[in-house]
Amino acid sequence: MKKAILLAAIAATTACTSLHVPPSNAELKQQVADTERAFAGTMAKRDHQAFVTFLADETIFYSGSKALRGKDTVAAEWKAFYEKPEAPFSWEPDQVEVLDSGTLAHSSGPVRDPQGKVTARFNSVWRLEAPGKWRIVFDKGERVCDCKKQ
């Protein structure tokens, strides 16, 4: 009887572990794209508290030539972007890549002013901190040029 119980326990454990299939790279890319869109949605909804939940504790955001280091610093600096009724800018990803390890991702896309004109391009690095839970560790925006004038 003990042998049957032991075999049943081993079979159950084996079945459970063999059923876990890690997400494909395409699924991870979709997770990151969805996370980036939700992150951008905090600006549209004017929800600074939600914005902060996407920040890794050791996040670094570039602001001009200086780096804002840490979740609390970034949250404090970005609070000003959330104070007025109208969002000062919006963004959305148009490129997402995830390392084969599935632990880091890069997202990039246009930043638009309130009238919809592209004024910059963002680049963000995301880290997988728990299954399906991505947090931003680096963020940097770069102004775009009016290439027609060049």
Question: How would you describe the overall organization of this protein?
Answer:
The chain has 150 residues and is an alpha+beta fold. It has a single domain, classed as Roll (Nuclear Transport Factor 2, Chain: A), CATH 3.10.450.50. Helix content is 35%, strand content 35%. It is built from four helices and seven strands. Strands 1, 2, 3, 4, 5, 6 and 7 form a seven-stranded mixed beta sheet that branches. The protein is globular and about 75 Å long.
Q: From the helix content, strand content and strand pairing, which structural class follows?
A: alpha+beta
Shape: globular
Q: Cα-atom Rg, whole angstroms?
A: 21 Å
Major beta-sheet overview? 7 strands, mixed
The domain tally reads 1
The percent range for helix content is 25-40%
Beta-strand residue percentage:
25-35%
Count of helical segments?
4
Describe what is shown at a glance.
With 150 residues, the chain is α+β, with helices and mostly antiparallel strands. The chain has helices at residues 2-19, 25-44, 48-53, 71-78, and strands at residues 55-63, 66-69, 90-91, 95-98, 104-112, 118-130, 133-143.
List descriptors.
single chain, 150 residues, alpha+beta, Nuclear Transport Factor 2, Chain: A, 7-stranded mixed beta sheet, 4 helices, 7 strands
Task: Draw up the topology in text.
Blueprint: H1 2-19, H2 25-44, H3 48-53, E1 55-63, E2 66-69, H4 71-78, E3 90-91, E4 95-98, E5 104-112, E6 118-130, E7 133-143
Parallel strand pairs: 1-7
Antiparallel strand pairs: 1-2, 3-5, 4-5, 5-6, 6-7
